[in-house]
Design goal:
This protein is 85% helix and 0% strand. It is globular and about 55 Å long. The relative contact order is 0.14. It has 395 residues and is an all-alpha fold.
Length: 395
């Protein structure tokens, strides 16, 4: 096991690069989408759909990236992500045709597969084993600052230089900061032989296909990702539809971020020894009541709902890395994370689009019923999760 000082170095390095990765992907369109649409003449829907396409690419690539990490280690995978992020952002800034724009999101999608939480968690799991929980919580704690820091930086650069130069600057950040940090400061891992890697991947795939527990974990995380993607994109418009003013809706939405950070701090301190199966139940339960209270016609209840939902989402982000490690163990962890990443990323890609269709076709009440039902299904799923160490589950 790594010494505590090396663990904290891992948290610092990967926390910083996660801020950079999320800022230049998920949070980028929130600032630049309307400016890109206005400058190019493309519809806003087509511009925002670039992010959805990027998530689809990520989902397609995730299992292969998991096997890559299993064979070559996380250091190489995360270093590759910095290169793909830089290429994608460079192409984004040069986009004058939709084909170039979507090619840019293809490169960013590959970068996300190699460089977002799944790859980071896989790396930490391989390096730290069952002791990875603290590091995973620490990385998500820092990564949770991506929207605040990322939006501020992008707005600053865009105001000075425009959206295209802002993309170029972000590309330079990945090349001059992200790449050296990943390549020189992350520990080298012993490379698996090709035969051993193939053997391990085959065993993991067989285990996955025949193991109901793995499928249960996949369903819980995918359902929750669909709900999170929907609320992240449509929250303000849904609150306005209920009757809240724009300023009130913003105030309610702003409760989610701090609540997520508080939840992660609690996971890092008071609940650091809580089994991830229990954390899953708590996280989904908070999300369930959060959604119920969030979309009520009352400011105080909506604030409470936003806080509960934020706490739940903060816990579940951590669970995405700690639950598979606790239930299935360190061996084959990166491969499993890659397999889990595919449905999760597809849910992130299609969740907002499907929800937009439901909102337009049947209205907010039907969408809320569907979201509540999905979270309740996830809650029932968490009740079936065992409270055992990995060795006992996989025997």
């Amino acid at each position: 096991m790594l010494l505590h000082s090396r663990k904290y170095k891992l948290i610092a390095v990967m926390g910083f690069t996660q801020i950079l990765a999320w800022s230049s992907t998920l949070y980028l369109p929130a600032v630049l989408a309307s400016l890109i649409a206005k400058d190019t003449g493309w519809s806003l829907t087509l511009v925002i759909a670039g992010l959805s396409w990027g998530f689809i690419v990520t989902g397609i690539c995730s299992p292969k990236v998991g096997r890559f990490i299993e064979q070559f280690g996380g250091r190489k995978a995360l270093s590759i992500s910095s290169i793909f992020f830089a290429i994608g952002l460079l192409c984004l800034g040069l986009s004058s045709h939709l084909l170039v724009y979507y090619f840019a999101w293809t490169m960013l999608g590959i970068g996300m597969a190699f460089g977002l939480y799944d790859a980071a968690f896989s790396t930490l799991g391989r390096l730290l084993g069952q002791d990875a929980k603290t590091a995973i919580v620490g990385v998500t704690l820092l990564g949770g600052l991506a929207s605040t820091i990322g939006w501020a930086l992008i707005v600053f650069f865009e105001g000075l230089y425009g959206w295209r130069i802002s993309c170029f600057i972000l590309a330079l950040f990945h090349l001059l900061l992200g790449l050296p940090l990943h390549y020189f400061l992350l520990p080298r891992e012993e490379q698996s032989t090709e035969t051993h890697a193939k053997e391990l991947n085959n065993q993991t795939t067989v285990h996955k296909e025949g193991n109901r527990l793995f499928m249960l974990v996949a369903i819980i995380l995918t359902v929750q990702s669909f709900v999170v993607a929907t609320i992240s994109v449509h929250l303000l418009s849904m609150l306005k539809t209920i009757g809240f003013s724009v300023s009130t809706a913003l105030a309610i939405g702003m409760m989610i971020g701090p609540a997520q950070i508080i939840a992660r701090l609690l996971e890092l301190s008071l609940f650091k020894n809580l089994h991830p199966s229990w954390s899953s139940r708590v996280g989904v339960l908070f999300s369930f009541f959060g959604i119920i209270f969030l979309f009520t016609d009352g400011y105080v209840l909506a604030l409470l709902g936003a806080a509960l939902y934020g706490v739940g989402n903060g816990i579940l982000t951590i669970i995405r890395g700690t639950l598979p490690l606790a239930l299935f163990g360190q061996e084959g962890y990166a491969t499993r994370m890659g397999l889990l990443g595919r449905p999760i990323m597809i849910a992130l890609a299609f969740g907002p689009l499907i929800s937009a269709f439901i909102l337009e076709k049947w209205g907010i009440n039907i969408l809320l019923i569907i979201l509540t039902a999905l979270v309740f299904i996830a809650l029932l799923g968490t009740l079936k999760l065992p409270i055992h160490q990995a060795e006992k589950v996989t025997e």
